[in-house]
Amino acid sequence: MIVDGWFHERGQLWPGQAMSIKVEEVLFEGKSDFQDVLVFRSSTYGTVLVLDGVIQVTDRDEFSYQEMMCHVPMNLHECPRRVLVVGGGDGGVVREILKHDTVEEVVLCEIDRMVIEMSKTYLPGLACGYNDPRVSVQIMDGAEYMRQHMNYFDVIITDSSDPIGPAETLFQQPYFEAIASALTENGVMCSQGECMWLHLDIIKPTLRMCEKLFPSVGYAYTCIPTYPSGQIGEIICSKRQLDVSKPLTQRTIPDLKYYSPEVHSAAFVLPEFCRRALLEEEAPSGDP
């Protein structure tokens, strides 16, 4: 992965392309019970966390992903008090959730303890919420935890890696069924939704599956330089009928760098190739 001082990301889900970042210093390299873990200090993106060879987060651009994954679903609920994050061991989504003054309880359910520990050590700007008394951590399978907490959470956010390895089950129907059961009557969910330039063949069936479980479903996207093709999507679902592209609330949220009510709405306006592909009866190929 590191050759001549450069880290090269070559993922199974984006063949024929690579992302390269110059490495200044390797801070940690090891293997957890689930995946390879690499942390390094880069020349231009600050500290970088890599799992199984795939970039998960960097100091420079993490805010665009964390803010949109959090504030889009949180602002579609009038009073989110109990929030569950599945995955997201770096702590960034938890950090953003805690900016909402309605929040009373946040549970982070992460299967890999090493991701949390490495983030606390090397990414303290993301992992700063772990000491908040409203936050608890469960090291276990997210779907199993949700089955133990039916009709409990107002918002559930799945901050997952790509659907290979330990995150594969987070893109399958039983997992989304568990989310629907664990949400309260007006609950909202957000799930990492892959890249429209590469993964329409994953995005479309996932949306169709969610439409069977939730009355309101939408796909939004975020710009982020270090994710494949510079874009990542999010699947937004609500257990009540509403327009997910329009925030229900205008809560004052401090220290935002990316999210705004206007960006919230604009994120659901898809380029024509993507909009048409998601409306087709047959699942499209991964190419636009």
Descriptive notes:
With 288 residues, this protein is of the alpha/beta class. The protein has two domains: 2-58, Spermidine Synthase, Chain: A, domain 2, CATH 2.30.140; 62-279, Rossmann fold, CATH 3.40.50. It is built from eight helices and 13 strands. The protein has a seven-stranded mixed β-sheet with strand order 9-8-7-10-11-13-12. Strands 1-2-3-4-5-6 form a six-stranded antiparallel β-sheet, covered by helices on one side. Strand 3 and strand 4 form a beta hairpin. The longest helix has 13 residues, at 62-74. The radius of gyration is 18 Å and the shape is globular. It starts with a strand and ends in a 9-residue tail after the last helix. The mean pLDDT is 93. This is PABS domain-containing protein. Belongs to the spermidine/spermine synthase family. Residues 4-239 form the PABS domain. The active site is at 159 (proton acceptor). One of its GO terms (molecular function) is spermidine synthase activity.
